[in-house]
Fold:
Amino acid sequence: MSSSEIYDIIIIGGGVIGCSIARALCKYELKICLLEKEADIAMGTTKANSGVVHAGYAAERKFTKRNLCIRGNKLYSEAVKELNFPFKRMGSFVVAFKVEEIKLLEEIRKRGIEDGILDLELILEKQRIKRMEPNISDDIIGVLHAPSAGIVSPYEMTFALAQNAAMNSVKFFRSQEVIKIDHSDYIFTITTQRNEFKSLNVINCAGLYSAKISKMLGLDYFDITPRKGEYVLFDRNTIQLNKILFPTPTKISKGILVCPTFHGNAFAGPNAQNITDIEDTSTTTAGLKEVLEGAKKIVPNLPLRASIRNFAGLRAVPSTYDFIIDNTDIYGFINVAGILSPGLTSSYAIAEKVIDFLELLGVELKVKEDYNPYRPKPERFTDFSKKELDKKIKEDSSWGRIICRCETISEKEILNAIQGPIGATTIDGVKFRCRAGMGRCQSGFCRPRVMEILSREMKLPYQAITKKGDDTNILIAKTKDLLLKEIIKKEIQK
Amino acid sequence: MKTYNTDVTIIGGGAAGLAAAIEVNKGGKEVLILERGIELGGILMQCIHNGFGIKEFNKELTGPEYAQKFINEVNQLNIPYKLDTIVIEITLDKKIYAVNKIEGLIEINSKTIILAMGCRERTRGAINVPGFRPAGIFTAGQAQRFVNIEGYLPGKNIVILGSGDIGMIMARRLTWEGCNVKAVVEIQPYVSGLLRNEIQCLEDYGIPLITNYSLTKIHGKNRVKGVTISKVDRNFDRIIGSDQFIECDTLLLSVGLIPENELTRIAGAEISSMGGPIVDNNLETTLEGVFACGNVLQVHDLVDLVTAESKRAGRNAIEYINKRYKKKLKGIEKIHLSAGHNINYVKPDNICLGEILGEIIINFRVKNPDRRIQINIKDETNKTLYKKKKSYVIPSEMIELKINLNNMELNPKCNGLIVEVIPQLEPLIE
Amino acid sequence: MTECEDRGIIKTIRCIVCPTGCLVEVRKDIGGEISFQGYTCKRGLEYAQQEHFDPKRIITTTIRVEDGIHPLLPIRSDSPLLKEKLSYAFKIIAKTKVKAPIKMGDILIKGIADENVNIIASRDMIKKKVE
Ligand SMILES: Cc1cc2nc3c(=O)[nH]c(=O)nc-3n(C[C@H](O)[C@H](O)[C@H](O)COP(=O)(O)OP(=O)(O)OC[C@H]3O[C@@H](n4cnc5c(N)ncnc54)[C@H](O)[C@@H]3O)c2cc1C
Ligand SMILES: Cc1cc2nc3c(=O)[nH]c(=O)nc-3n(C[C@H](O)[C@H](O)[C@H](O)COP(=O)(O)OP(=O)(O)OC[C@H]3O[C@@H](n4cnc5c(N)ncnc54)[C@H](O)[C@@H]3O)c2cc1C
Ligand code: SF4
Structure:
């Protein structure tokens, strides 16, 4: 790309925050691009969190995140209509085991209602609670019910946001790690390992790395520390949860929850572990134990034998403990940093706030004539009726080849994931877009087939296919290569 | 939508499906095999080592050779099969829905169904190994497929978790291809596979076998950089201070197989806690006219036993069609067979009385290895009806008993039998 | 001198013929005579003798194949090969390529590292259809 091209706005970071901002801005006549360091978007904190769209009662009133969360929750209703991502308002319970906890829940409820979460309800009839959620422990004495809480597939929502932004001509550049930012004459020059980009305005949404980005411009007024949260995921159909189940919160965290996912799995987690290494998404023996023990208190019949995966996500905890959404001292540079929980819930509200800032900065916000807010729902084999299925396969035979047997994902869905706007280029990219490899066999069956399709579509050799970008190749050589190499080495020595 | 009608539909064209199909065909019934792979043979096609067929052919064949013999026979008998065709649903009224690229959605109506879908491997998540989630982690069977069929090597410096036969065979296989297998790590105090494999796959090549150790961390954010293993105590809890780091670029998991019963569950058959469907001595599931055999029923270590079991399933399917089954008439009782001391599971789950029945085959696995044991079958009053001595038992060997209920003094009111493995009371005379 | 050497034991072999797994001791007396002890049955003695004097293994591996429906064809040796010759045999196999169609049992390499041991196909390999 030519370096003379000057963008109106460059967004750094392709997590849910960067993508929701990109999507909110794509309706205006602006030249926008987004830079993401990983081989795909949504691969940071956005892919490893609880996926709960919180009702908003949890944070203290002094924090901006409280209001943004309450507003953000409401904005989901419209967003899901336009973007068709997996989202369901199923309601949450905060459970109490002790009388003091009930008192606390009553407090929370009162303040929540005052702040606009009108449907919060304290339920003390055990029978009713059990009817609403039969899996809950017999030891509970009451729950705070928040009907507006929901579950979302965070990465699928982020892909939807990005795809819609791309449809409305936002450019996405992946594998572009920002390493330097200069500014002079109101123009920012952003250097990545591969290219140079110029822009009038820059929005920093780099998650865990947002302090580092801010410091590139000398703006050293906050720090981000990682706080790890570990999870255990269970197979589909092993436990049917009707509600998102939280313990009564403590000062430090919302606690370990037991929660269904949109696709019918259940998970337990997260714990909260302060760490120092910003890259350390490893799970630990102690952590997984803590998660399962915590979860079992709320749901004693957790299907422990049906765990299919464990993972960890890192909260980007800012020194202020609140979201940092600022028009900085450097004109045109906006920080959207330290977006810890409930960042996912707040994303639409955060994007609104960023638009306000841009207006203050004098960016002209003229709505495009051809703006299209809709992203069609990706077609799924399992959503079709038998008749439709037959027709679909006859129209395009790749619907008739099942690649992932656990989740019943056809070749066509994989092709769509690769060929669509901001298509997948890696195995993880395919997996997070269409769920191939997410099931109980964890890609044991489908991996060779997904690799074959990726290699065919991307015109890359099989061996060049990666799990998630550079240095993550799945295979190292062809069978016989090592032996042949040895032979050649010996011959040379002779 | 294309519709087919047949006597017997067999889901899965591996060792089990092939043997069952041949038996049904020889019994004069129409049969159709549905296989989702691009060729028949199932898992055998990637098990290129020898050690198959000792009981069935009195010869040591490789997996593909064993399969080829059956494939040839299927072809000679002109038994119809559909490849690249995956069954997606079995309805309560025994309709089967499958899809393939050419015909689209297919509906099959058949008088009976034989489930022969095989098994899948347990994964890292199932055993909850902590650490990073980089590239370079494979299940042993997946690696086997890459090396032997797709033609690619998963890595160069390899650690294998689990000393089952598949793990040990892969250790040798990768060594033969020029890889460096650094260790086979086993959580149990004993090797879980056969002695022969321990010697010919590990000892022959000086591959260290580390027992009583478990994997406690996977290192490397992008590609596996190494693993930490730790000694475990009797409860499999990590012993602090025993950590050991092994550098490697690849980790293979050989941590067990689970019968593949998603379809069975959808169809509404009851599944036992070990993962296979609940069957009676005719290998019939709790759905009338639906039979199960091979690894979908119970994980076998010997393909010869899969073949024998599947032939039985085939014969019983024919019997069923010929309506010689009387047990569906009301009032015929079943005896429940349950797992007693040191028994992990026992198959069948139920024995149908009334149509007795010469010999019944009982399969089970033990929980823990033991020597000089005695296998007992007892009734609910603790009366021993059958006993057999054996010099050793190991969890990795599926044990087969042939019993004859007619020779047992079975209490007519009996509705449960227990199988147990206990130390021998008297000295060993085998 | 260790105790074993003292007693003239030069090696122990674990018998794999049956799962009892007897430990057979191989001894060398002063005159150089080799003897075996510790086996329970004749099969064990035969096995130990074979393993000591002449250890052999069946080769089972793959060979590269052209025009087949798979890139590799599983193969085996039709009889056991001396253990020390295995690694040489694998290199020869690695260098060789065969062409589909092939039938199970077809001899692909005659006399590999030993004129009495041939490499044969372990399955049929049909030709890939060209589109
Ligand atoms: C354990 C846990 C549980 C949570 N649960 C919930 C919940 O239930 N509900 C809720 O609302 N919120 C929850 N959250 C919070 C939510 O996940 C985050 O607020 C949200 O994902 C933050 O998104 P982001 O886009 O800011 O960060 P990220 O997703 O991390 O995105 C930042 C992106 O910037 C990229 N980047 C970084 N540096 C550079 C660079 N130099 N150049 C280019 N790109 C760069 C990264 O690669 C990354 O893709 C949870 C968080 C955690 C950790
Ligand atoms: C790695 C490994 C090594 C082994 N080594 C030995 C050995 O050395 N000696 C020995 O005697 N035994 C060995 N065994 C055991 C023996 O080979 C197996 O138990 C036997 O082959 C299993 O046969 P099966 O037909 O039950 O299963 P499979 O061979 O797995 O066949 C099941 C078939 O069903 C198909 N299928 C599944 N679901 C569907 C669906 N929905 N629609 C259509 N088709 C479907 C699958 O594609 C597959 O082809 C080994 C097993 C394994 C896994
Ligand atoms: S010597 Fe005989 S009894 Fe002992 S292991 Fe060998 S075959 Fe078995």
